[in-house]
Automatic annotation (TrEMBL):
GO terms for cellular component: membrane. The keyword Plastid does not apply. This is Major facilitator superfamily domain containing 6-like. Belongs to the major facilitator superfamily. MFSD6 family. It comes from Neogobius melanostomus.
Length: 569
């Protein structure tokens, strides 16, 4: 078959755009709200950070491995379709995990519930908060749980009526809580020996240790396993599809149009997170018997993933083994390591990734504590994505006044300002002003990174260098940021974690310009000018050779004429 019948660039870009739109919409329906669902299940901030950090680490390692294997065996389409089906099935398994506290509600119209893993300091703060509102009369039955010294959980049912009849004072309930904790504290010492003996006997038997494990740890390990399997099915999708599309366009000499398909990812994420937030907010607290409305997030992901399968079945893939470049990431790492400015950019992306993960994991927690529901959350996140997508319209003007290094510093500083602002939220829509800054923070950041990639990349390594920043720097930063952020929230609270992350990033933004000034500048190689120079040099050499030949011929002719005259005379 002739080449012009095999290649259809417009059709390839349309299918790739539809695939990126659907995949981004499916992920946006679920992933931004995942930490909020983990909070409803009863996971502590530390456990939530570990789960999210494991998710990012699996994506960091598993995506390139599956991409190389599917390319080596030419099974890209099989891998994508299999991952879509598997992710749709696994996402429907997660809602069947029972929460640690059966009395947890999924709506925001209830008294704050204390998780079994919360510290005693947080418990005392909640007691003081309840005492502040001791004159409150609540019409709906409410549950409050308190952590006991022995690690158990006591649930108190507060059935408060508005007319004062059969009402129970919150202060009286708090006193009952304290008395209960004192009694359990006296019993704690007598139970330590029996628990120690039981744990010693069961330490040699793994199955027995699982049986005696408390509910909280069982929940944590179960969620960790299922989220890891879910991530393993989702991570290879975009990586593998991008590889196939780029090779297809490269074979058609249209690789310059590859970046146009990425715009649909932001558009799809905007529709996904906004649509899911609006849909879930319109439902009642429980959509069925003991089924919270947050389950809709998983259902939306599963439906969109299954709808994506027909589009993925027609994605254009071309495997050109002659142009296969193994160890592309290794070459990209070598190029980044060989430039001081590239290393500074990599460190900046690593720190920004840590702050971004901390904000993404616990921003919805902070919004929920300030009265936000899924409607406020979804529309706020969608507005941030729209602001990020608007950078190409103003990026050309900004790039005329700021170099890539200065814009990188400015963007990182704005991320720090956003994180600091999030620690002072006061209402459901208070997050919106900071989301406008996404135009310069995220949009400007990736523009500066792309300029840095173009500066150090050589022919054929552009995507490898870009993936070093996207995968190794950003995903590695998200892994570390999730773990450190969870530990910080557990110890200091969400607000102080946001402020600490902002301070660290601001300090780096002060040091970064000084390091950039001392770093040597690398002149970009313009291959078009180089080729033009080679052509001009070649033409000059050819003209010189022609002139030399003409001069030599004229001299020979002159010599022959003179010799002829001498012979004639």
């Amino acid at each position: 078959m002739r080449r012009n019948r095999q290649i259809n660039v417009a059709r390839a870009l349309a299918l790739a755009g539809a695939f990126n739109f659907l995949i981004s919409a499916a992920k946006a329906c679920l992933l931004p709200f995942l930490t909020l669902y983990l909070r409803h299940l009863g996971l502590s901030p530390t456990e939530t950070g570990l789960v999210m950090g494991t998710k990012h680490f699996i994506a960091l390692v598993w995506s390139p491995i599956t991409g190389l294997l599917s390319k080596h065996y030419d099974k890209r389409r099989v891998l994508i379709n299999s991952c879509l089906v598997a992710s749709a099935v696994v996402s429907l398994v997660i809602p069947f995990i029972p929460p640690a506290d059966v009395h947890k509600l999924d709506c925001n119209d209830h008294i704050s519930v204390i998780s079994p893993t919360q510290s005693s300091m947080d418990t005392r703060k909640t007691e003081a908060h309840l005492m502040t509102y001791s004159n409150l009369k609540i019409t709906n039955p409410t549950f409050a749980s308190v952590e006991m010294p022995n690690g158990s959980q006591e649930v108190y049912h507060l059935s408060l009526s508005s007319n004062g009849n059969q009402s129970l004072s919150i202060v009286t309930t708090i006193q009952a809580m304290k008395e209960k904790r004192s009694i359990v504290g006296l019993q704690n010492n007598s139970n330590k020996k029996s628990k120690l003996s039981d744990s010693t006997e069961s330490s040699f038997d793994f199955i027995s240790s699982l049986k005696v494990m408390d509910i909280q740890h069982q929940l944590f390990f179960l969620i960790l396993i299922i989220i890891s399997v879910f991530t393993a099915t989702v991570a290879p999708l975009e990586w593998t599809a991008d590889d196939g599309l780029y090779e297809y366009l490269d074979f058609a000499d249209a690789s310059d149009r590859y970046s146009s398909s990425k715009t649909w990812s932001l558009i799809g994420a905007t529709f996904g997170v906004g649509g899911a937030g609006i849909l879930v907010s319109q439902l009642s607290c429980l959509i069925a018997a003991e089924t919270p409305r947050s389950v809709v997030h998983f259902v939306c992901f599963s439906v969109i993933a299954l709808v994506t399968i027909p589009v993925a079945s027609f994605l254009p893939f071309y495997l050109n083994r002659k142009r296969t470049r193994p160890n592309g990431l290794v070459k990209g790492l070598q190029l980044v390591r060989g430039s001081i400015r590239a290393l500074l950019c990599a460190i900046t992306i690593l720190l920004v990734g840590m702050v971004i993960s901390a904000v993404e994991n616990f921003l919805l927690w902070e919004m929920q504590d300030n009265g936000s529901n899924e409607l406020h959350m979804g529309l706020s996140l969608a507005f941030g994505l729209i602001s990020q997508a608007a950078f190409p319209f103003c990026g050309v003007k900004i790039s005329k006044f700021l170099s890539s290094g200065r814009l990188l510093t400015l963007s990182a500083a704005i991320v720090a300002v956003q994180s600091f602002y999030f620690s002072f939220l006061w209402g459901p829509w208070a997050v919106l002003p900071a989301q406008i800054l996404n135009t310069l923070s995220f949009g400007g950041l990736w523009w500066a990174v792309q300029v840095q990639c173009d500066d150090i990349a050589i022919l054929g390594t552009e995507r490898s260098v870009t993936r070093v920043y996207n995968a190794l720097c950003l995903d590695l930063g998200r892994t570390l940021g999730s773990i450190i952020g969870g530990l910080s929230v557990q110890k200091f609270g969400i607000a102080w974690m946001f402020r600490g992350a902002a301070v660290v990033l601001i300090i780096w933004c002060i040091i970064l310009p000084l390091l950039q000034m001392k770093a040597p500048r690398q002149r970009r190689i313009n291959y078009s000018r180089l080729l033009a120079a080679d052509a001009s040099e070649a033409s000059e050499s050819e003209s010189e050779q022609e002139r030399d030949w003409l001069d030599k011929a004229m001299q020979d002719d002159k010599c022959n004429y003179n010799n002829g005259r001498r012979m004639h005379h």
